[in-house]
């Protein structure tokens, strides 16, 4: 169920861009008029993510996961049958809203079902579709559009979606705590969180087309950030918040979540920057751009297999810190090697090395964020982690764009950023990775109990068996004078 949900969400978020020219030709529209088909998906996804934790706890994980899969599959069918652009946009919005439920709910069920050691082992398998989906989606979309038409970009979701729903109905058990039924809906918190995250996603998606300096883009980015700050303040004080932001009082969860928001920016920024270098600076094709970045998936898959075996012996701190140091080294080197004449294989090597380094970051951050939390908080932790990742996705292009603007002379802005601006962007990402690496080492190493597969130190210290035993007080026997014996039948007794 988790694999199907993640694969559907990732593929559907990428594959549609391949079909835009065909959709525009069918509806007699230019490709620039079809931005709403792409933008509405992440915006609606961001709006519904904050509600997923409350829905999972209130109505149960099985019910919400099946509902999300059913809505997503139905919306995919309607997208494939759309007869006009407004219909397609509405059905695409329904797809995004359902996708906003699928990822946090499926992760919450995963965290509730398996122990941390089991989650680390599973991650070595579960990360495969997460990395293959973005690489396979453009190829699959091109084949479907050329052979069957643009509608099959959406209809291809039906077999996997229906199979996942049938599997869930037959084998997925319900898991819901009785205390969750009494929780009230924090409408204010949900509105602030959903609108803030949705505004951020709109700014990120519209920025490349409208320009990052466009008033609409700046307004939504700044407004989304302000709404999220207001959402945190409200839910920190609320008695029964929709998102339990007080989980950030837990030191390990707070540090791992902060690294999840900032530590991923250097990598996501490189994923955003390399296509700009290839297509804008070097005037190459979109296919060249795609082949230049897809090697990162191979690097991540290789490293994760090793990290999953040594995590409980080494701990998150050394792995995350070393991985981010590797990211910094690669990006600082890329900053010096980037130019108009840089070959594609250089960028493929850069992305492969970045994938090798980031493979030591993804899995330890996920595992460390749950080390000291109760399983009852799994849904809230999964939702907050998703919000932090969406924030990271918004920060990455903003950092790159700001670097490009600073590196572009005002006299030559119309001609586009020069090679020096792209080098500055790589150096900025490398310095940020260095700062995050220093913070990553503070995650620490595992305790003896957790390294051996036992409970975390916080749980062990609270268990009755871990309390120090009081030494038993024994009476001190006085020594007998030499030659003095105890009476017969009273051997060993005190006088």
What's this, in brief?
By secondary structure, the protein is mainly α. The protein has 19 helices and no strands.
Write a structural description.
The protein is mainly α and 495 residues long. The protein folds into two domains: 1-175, MFS general substrate transporter like domains (Growth Hormone, Chain: A); 249-453, Growth Hormone, Chain: A (Up-down Bundle), CATH 1.20.1250. It is built from 19 helices and no strands. α8 packs parallel to α16 and α10 (251-262) runs antiparallel to α17 (419-440). The protein is globular and about 60 Å long. It starts with a helix and ends in a 33-residue tail after the last helix. The model is unreliable at 178-182, 448-476 and 483-495 (pLDDT under 50).
Main features:
495 residues, Growth Hormone, Chain: A, 2 domains, mainly alpha, disordered C terminus, 19 helices
In CATH terms, what is the fold-level topology of the largest domain?
Growth Hormone, Chain: A
For the residues shown, what is the average pLDDT?
78
**CA-to-CA gap between the ends?**
77 Å
CATH superfamily of the largest domain: MFS general substrate transporter like domains
Give the helices and strands as they follow along the chain.
HHHHHHHHHHHHHHHHHHH
What's the count of strands? 0
Structural class designation = mainly alpha
What portion of residues belong to β-strands?
under 5%
Q: Regarding CATH, which class of the largest domain?
A: Mainly Alpha
Could you say how many structural domains there are in total? 2
The outline comes out as: globular
Q: What's the assembly state of these chains?
A: single chain
* Distinct helical segment count: 19
CATH architecture label name of the largest domain: Up-down Bundle
Low-confidence stretches: 178-182, 448-476, 483-495
């Amino acid at each position: 169920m988790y694999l199907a949900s993640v694969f559907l969400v990732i593929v559907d978020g990428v594959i549609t861009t391949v079909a835009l020219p065909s959709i525009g030709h069918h509806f007699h529209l230019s490709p620039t008029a079809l931005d709403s088909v792409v933008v509405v998906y992440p915006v609606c996804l961001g709006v519904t993510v904050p509600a997923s934790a409350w829905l999972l706890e209130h109505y149960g994980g099985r019910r919400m996961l099946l509902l999300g899969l059913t809505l997503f599959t139905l919306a995919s069918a309607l997208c494939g049958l759309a007869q006009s652009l407004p219909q397609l946009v509405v059905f695409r919005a329904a797809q995004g809203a359902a996708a906003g439920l699928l990822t946090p709910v499926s992760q919450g069920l995963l965290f509730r079902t398996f122990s941390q050691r089991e989650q680390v082992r599973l991650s070595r398998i579960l990360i495969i579709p997460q990395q293959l989906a973005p690489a396979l989606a453009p190829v699959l979309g091109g084949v479907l559009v050329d052979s069957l038409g643009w509608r099959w970009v959406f209809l291809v979701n039906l077999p996997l979606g229906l199979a996942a729903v049938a599997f869930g109905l037959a084998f997925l058990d319900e898991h819901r705590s009785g205390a969750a039924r009494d929780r009230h809906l924090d409408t204010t918190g949900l509105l602030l969180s959903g609108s803030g995250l949705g505004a951020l996603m709109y700014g990120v998606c519209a920025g490349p087309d409208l320009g990052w300096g466009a008033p609409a883009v700046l307004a939504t980015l700044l407004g989304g950030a302000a709404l999220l700050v207001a959402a945190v303040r409200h839910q920190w004080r609320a008695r029964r918040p929709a998102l339990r932001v007080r989980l950030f009082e837990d030191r390990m969860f707070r540090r791992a979540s902060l690294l999840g928001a900032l530590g991923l920016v250097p990598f996501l920024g490189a994923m955003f920057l390399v296509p700009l270098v290839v297509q804008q600076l070097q005037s190459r094709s979109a296919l060249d751009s795609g082949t230049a970045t897809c090697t990162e998936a191979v690097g991540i898959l290789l490293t994760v297999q090793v990290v999953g075996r040594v995590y409980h012996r080494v701990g998150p701190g050394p792995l995350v810190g070393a991985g981010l140091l590797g990211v910094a080294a690669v990006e600082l080197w890329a900053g010096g090697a980037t130019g108009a004449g840089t070959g594609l294989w250089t960028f493929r090597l850069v992305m492969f090395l970045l994938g090798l380094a980031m493979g030591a970051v993804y899995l330890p951050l996920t595992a460390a964020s749950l080390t000291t939390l109760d399983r009852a908080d799994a849904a809230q932790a999964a939702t907050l982690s998703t919000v932090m990742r969406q924030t990271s996705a918004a920060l990455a292009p903003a950092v790159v764009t700001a670097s490009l603007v600073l590196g572009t002379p005002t006299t030559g802005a119309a001609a586009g950023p020069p090679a020096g601006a792209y080098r500055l962007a790589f150096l900025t990402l490398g310095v940020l990775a260095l700062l995050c690496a220093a913070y990553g080492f503070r995650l620490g190493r595992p305790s003896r109990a957790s390294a051996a597969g036992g409970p975390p130190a916080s749980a062990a210290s609270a268990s009755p068996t871990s309390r120090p035993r009081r030494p038993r007080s024994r009476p001190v026997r006085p020594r007998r004078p030499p030659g003095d014996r105890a009476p017969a039948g009273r051997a060993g007794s005190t006088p």
